[in-house]
Amino acid sequence: QAKAEGRNRYHFFTSTLSHRLREQRRIAANLRESLRNDEFELLFQPQIDVKTGKFASCEALLRWCPKDKTKAVTPDVFIPIAERGELIGDLGDWVLKKACQQAQAWKEKGIAIRIDINVSGKELEKSSYFDSLTAYRAEYALSPEDIGLELTENVLIKSDSTILDGLKAQRDLGVEISIDDFGTGYSSLSYLKHFPVTHLKIDRSFLDGAPENDFDSALMEAIVNVGHKLNLKIVVEGVETESQSDYCKSLNVEFVQGYLFSRPISADAIETLYVEQSK
Ligand code: C2E
Ligand code: MG
Ligand code: MG
Ligand code: MG
What region holds the EAL domain (predicted)? Predict the structure, then answer.
């Protein structure tokens, strides 16, 4: 009886696993086709300067918009699949180029907004990433300050010296570099000393519980203190309520980002917001 059950479970397991693999392969194939047909879009979410209440930077967030909308999945799902299937190189290049085009368009209109892009570890492994960044900057007449990079802790930890040297070179040029989802990856803070970063983006999971939850608020406060001691700017992501926003202010963080201020929106909508705040 137990044996039969075990066997059934095994069958169940293998069939869901192969189902999942098939599903991932299907998504990868659709992604590839969408890359050929340019069926992606960049949305932008403002990062608000707590002191002024205004924004001068935003995060670029990729959206997949295939003609058949039922095929679309969120970046949480398709980015890891793209990373596994080698597609991330082309996808990341699309994001980089699009962000640079947008930054140029804004500059030409006198709109001063830095665009931060999310970079996956797999993209950095390709030695050409920084060359592309440099080439696009030249092509679109951008300064290093115009495009920032967001990397997760785990990417930084796993980076070899070539990648770190590449990042340092960008940092020396004036590129802003954020550690994304800070607090969810590697647990030692001492490594921060060795990385050329300018901003810590505290993961929104810590904000969920703070300020009511003592553990979450203790972590938030500790991260802000360490970050400031190391001369890093702090960004809190996922701010959804006024009380969370007030809490961030009380911690003296530099930037806040979240649905309370704006969801990720189109480039045109960002322009409207920017013009509005400049009045
Ligand atoms: P992330 O870089 O940590 O981006 C923050 C995510 O939180 C975004 O989800 C954003 O829409 C969402 N968010 C912003 N404010 C709030 C809020 O107040 N509440 C809640 N609940 N969520 C909020 P999104 O756009 O679905 O992206 C998910 C992840 O996918 C990103 O996490 C990033 O890791 C990855 N991703 C997105 N675009 C790109 C890209 O162009 N390249 C790469 N490599 N990864 C990307
Ligand atoms: Mg990010
Ligand atoms: Mg994040
Ligand atoms: Mg994330």
Answer: 24-278
Indicate whether this model's pTM tops 0.90. yes
120 Cβ closer than 6 Å to some ligand 1 atom: yes
CA–CA separation, 74 vs 162, rounded Å? Answer: 32
Strands (E), 86-209: 114-118, 147-152, 177-182, 199-202
Is this prediction's ipTM beyond 0.95?
yes
Q: Determine what percent of the chain falls in helix, strand and coil, rounding each to the nearest 5.
A: 55, 20, 25
Q: Report which ligand 1 atom has the smallest distance to the Cα of 92.
A: 42
- Ligand 1 atom closest to Cα of residue 45: 14
Q: What is the 3-state secondary structure (H, E, C) of 177-230?
A: EEEEEECCCCCCCHHHHHCCCCEEEECHHHHHHCCCCHHHHHHHHHHHHHHHHC
